[in-house]
Design a protein that fits this description.
Layout (H helix, E strand, L loop, with lengths): L2 E3 L6 H9 L26 H9 L1 H4 L1 E5 L2 E2 L2 E3 L7 H7 L4 H17 L4 E3 L8 E4 L1 H5 L15 E5 L3 E6 L2 H14 L3 E2 L7 E4 L4 E3 L2 E5 L5 E5 L8 H6 L2 E2 L26 E2 L2 E2 L10 H16 L19 H4 L17 H18 L5 E5 L17 E5 L16 H16 L2 E7 L13 H13 L2 E7 L4 H16 L5 H13 L1 H20 L10 H4 L2 H18 L3 H28 L3 H20 L5 H21 L5 E5 L3 E7 L20 E4 L15 E11 L6 E5 L2 E2 L1 E6 L2 E5 L7 E4 L7 E11 L9 E2 L3 E5 L1
Parallel strand pairs: 1-10, 4-5, 4-6, 6-8, 13-20, 17-18, 18-19, 19-20
Antiparallel strand pairs: 2-3, 2-11, 7-8, 7-12, 9-10, 13-14, 15-16, 21-32, 22-23, 22-24, 24-30, 25-29, 25-32, 26-31, 27-28, 27-30
Helix pairs in contact: 1-2, 5-7, 9-11, 13-14, 14-15, 15-16, 16-18, 18-19, 19-20, 20-21
């Protein structure tokens, strides 16, 4: 159940006075213990009005509900929306939705349900919403909001007027009034609703206005689409800037038969599809006409972004635009940014004549992530959306201890120098793993104000709404996106106190601070599951478990607080179970790892069915953990058995020229003394300060085998790259597909005593951030 405070009344006069003093809402008798006000509250009154309000508390208040009885009426124009409006917006207009939010939440507070009418009843206090408020005299034209999202809530003691400059802002205006009364919506989940409980609700004289800092704030994710109330309440909205992969929308594939020169060339041949020859002048005109048609059809701010992938044209004209000295760090490939910005510039200049109001958006992504080196200054109607999918996901932009994020800052500086408008499209979760708690609180506290200062106009937050493992930073990210100047610490102080109560809240704040600081200190940047053991050390797991136990005890007696603590505890259970099964894998005990995995999978599926988690929670767990554990359990199941886990440490050499086979790297008598000694399954190479090079890698290790046993084989749990294996100089087998478990036959190759294993890994293409090579244990088994 949602948390309800229980003062005698919620007085708008008291609330208004406290708001003027820097506190936006309070129950009569003072705020709940541990409560702190939200940042960013704006009110037009000064100290004189503050004193005056204190002097006339009873007289100044407008009663909304008195002693459990509805007093005020909500006024909305066109209660029965026209059919055209319904078809466009759904079952209700924005004004109706805002009124519905007020009715719902005021009933939560007081138990009374306010009536909604098209006209204000005589002699009855009224709350005018949207168009009705504007007709009643509410001014919005003096709020300077580039995205037309200014909002205002006014109470003159006789009536309340609230509206926004667009539909979303009107709904948010209703939410701001509810926040003024002490309501909060921390999680998009029933447990995330916080509101006072009082039979009386009133409002003092008030003039509250607000507007967002970014013109576009989009928070979304798989199974969490649409404009939910939680999203709008906390800041989602703005100008709809389209950023997706969009080329196929503008040029018909049917043109290929008549104009193959419009389409990409690969290996000397033109190919139909959605990849184009962007150096072709006529293609640029056709493309611009296609974009223009889309704008006129209703997509006001379209995307110019190419398809996902790397299907670039390799004709002489396109290749000539690339800078051979500019390389994409993550792949080593020549950057193709210059060719694309030249293309975008041409299209933008054509559209600036016909559609000057449109913002044309494009991704900085894949091999066109880096800023242009051509010295171009892009047209003012272009917006470059930096999408740092190939950059570390744990650290803030410009972290001096994180080379990846430091380079991202340089990249942003380069784009800021090349284009007037930039956007940021990023991941609000640990990509390819969404099972274990990870915190981005310090990231957003720094990055969102930083981006605003760089001229960023929008932020696109792909988010998995797994509240038990990401809740605090999801909330902070969208609150700061709405107001980048807000005090992040004050926002989170209020969050924890409001959601868990002062005592348990303090402990939950320590819990998340511990996780956040472990991520800040992390000196590994590997994606997915491969850095989690560096965060969740045995010592941290003990401290977190202690904090949650103490929080549960502090919340005992309050069912709602206790439920929220238990909700958060599900995330820690995930971390404990994952670290346990990983330890079992590394010991070669795949039977125990299977039991741990089965338990974690069952809990994840149950949590998902209860609204805790996402289908990706289960999908990633199966793909990147379950596949390997199940293969290992099968490989070691009786009558097979494990003979030994090969050493964690192997010798490593990079083979950029791919001459290792000619030099005999696979031979047992090859001298590998000068090679680097590296860990394999205990830590990724990145954790050992070794670069993730897109190249061929060679591993060698010598093992002692007392007796090879019957039908010996080597089981490789996971290798990042295409692997070939030699045993004592004899090629024994190869992987079928990178990253998947495989077994090679060792019969006839192994001998009693010392044996040399050599593995060639083709890691010329990236599959995950900062991995490469042997990343899970290798077992000698008897089949």
């Amino acid at each position: 159940m949602p948390r309800r405070f229980s003062p005698q009344s919620v007085s708008g006069v008291h609330a208004g006075v406290q708001a003027l003093a820097g506190c936006s809402t309070v129950a009569a008798g003072g705020p709940p213990k541990g409560w702190t006000p939200p940042s960013g509250f704006r009110c037009r009154a000064g100290l004189a009005l503050l004193i005056a309000a204190w002097l006339c508390l009873p007289a100044a208040a407008l009663d909304v509900v008195r002693d459990g009885r509805a007093v005020a009426t909500i006024v909305v124009r066109e209660l029965a929306a026209p059919a055209a409006t319904k078809a466009k917006r759904g079952a209700e207009s924005a004004d109706q939705r805002a009124a519905g939010v007020l009715v719902d939440w005021i009933k939560k507070i007081t138990g009374a349900e306010l009536a909604v009418a098209e006209m204000p009843p005589a002699g009855v206090p009224s709350i005018f919403v949207g168009a009705a408020a504007i007709e009643a005299g509410l001014r919005l034209d003096d709020i300077d909001s580039p995205s037309r999202e200014g909002l205002r809530v006014v109470c003159d003691g006789r009536r309340v007027l609230l509206a926004g400059q667009n539909d979303t802002a009107t709904i948010k205006a209703a939410c701001r009034l509810l926040e003024h009364w002490g309501c909060r919506y921390y999680l998009d989940h029933p447990l995330g609703e916080v509101f006072p409980a009082s039979p009386t609700l009133s409002l003092a004289t008030l003039d509250l206005q607000d507007k967002p800092g970014f013109v576009y704030r989009h928070i979304w994710g798989s199974q969490w689409s649409g404009d939910t109330l939680w999203k709008i309440w906390n800041g989602h909205g703005g100008i709809p800037l389209n950023t997706g992969h969009a080329w196929g929308n503008y040029v018909s594939r049917e043109l290929f038969e008549q104009h193959p020169e419009y389409f990409r060339q690969r290996n000397g041949r033109r190919e139909p599809g959605d990849w184009y020859c962007t150096s072709n002048p006529e293609l640029r005109r056709v493309f611009a006409r296609g974009v223009s048609d889309r704008i006129e059809a209703g997509t006001r701010h379209p995307s110019l972004s190419p398809p996902d992938g790397r299907g670039y044209c390799d004709c002489d004209g396109c290749n000539a635009q690339d800078d051979p000295h500019s390389r994409e760090p993550s792949s080593g490939h020549v950057c193709i940014t210059n060719r694309y910005v030249d293309f975008y510039q041409d299209v933008a200049q054509q559209l600036q004549v016909t559609h000057p109001e449109s913002i044309l958006n494009f991704y900085c992504y894949a091999d066109y992530t880096q800023a242009p080196t051509s010295g171009i200054r892009l047209a003012p109607n272009l917006c470059a959306w930096v999408a740092p999918i190939r950059y570390c996901r744990y650290h803030r932009i410009g972290d001096p201890a994180c080379p990846s994020r430091w380079q991202l800052r340089e990249l942003l500086d380069g784009w800021a120098a090349s284009v007037r408008q930039i956007g940021y499209r990023t991941y609000n979760y640990n990509l390819a793993e969404c099972c274990v708690p990870v915190s981005l609180l310090s990231v957003w506290k720094h990055d969102i104000p930083f981006l605003r200062d760089k001229g960023c106009i929008g932020i696109n937050l792909e988010t998995l709404a797994n509240w038990q493992i990401y809740g605090p930073h999801i909330y902070l990210s969208i609150r700061l996106a709405y107001d980048p100047r807000a005090d992040a610490d004050a926002i989170m102080d209020e969050y924890f106190a409001g959601l868990y109560g002062s005592q348990a809240g303090s402990l939950l704040q320590q819990y998340w601070t511990e996780i956040d600081q472990a991520c800040v200190r992390l000196r590994t940047h590997s994606g997915s599951f491969y850095a989690l053991h560096q965060i969740y050390t045995p010592d941290l797991l003990r401290r977190l478990d202690d904090l949650l136990r103490r929080a549960a005890a502090a919340a005992d007696g309050d069912a709602t607080f206790a439920a929220r603590v238990a909700f958060a505890a599900e995330g820690l259970k995930n971390a404990q179970q994952y670290i346990g099964l990983r330890d079992s894998m590394n010991r070669g005990d795949f039977a125990e790892a299977q039991r741990g995995y089965d338990a974690l999978l069952a809990r994840s599926e149950a949590n998902r069915s209860q609204g805790q988690g996402n289908h990706y929670t289960v999908a990633y767990l199966k793909r990147f953990v379950g596949t390997h554990i199940e293969a290992g359990a099968e490989a070691t199941r009786a009558p097979a058995r494990m003979l030994q886990v090969l050493p964690d440490e192997w010798r490593l050499a990079y083979d950029q020229a791919d001459t290792g086979l000619d030099q005999g790297y696979h031979r047992p008598d090859f001298d590998d003394w000068s090679w680097t000694l590296v860990a394999t399954y205990s830590d990724p190479l990145d954790a050992q300060r070794l670069p993730d090079r897109p190249t061929v890698m060679w591993y060698r290790v010598t093992i002692d085998v007392p007796a090879p046993g019957r039908r010996p084989a080597l089981f490789f749990t996971e290798v990042d790259g295409d692997a070939r294996v030699w045993i004592n100089g004899r090629e024994a087998g190869a992987s079928e597909k990178k990253r998947l478990p495989f077994t090679v036959d060792a019969e006839g190759a192994l001998k009693p005593g010392r044996n040399t294993i050599a593995v060639r890994v083709d890691h010329s293409s990236m599959t995950e951030l900062f991995l490469g090579g042997i990343i899970r244990p290798v077992l000698l088994i008897e089949r």
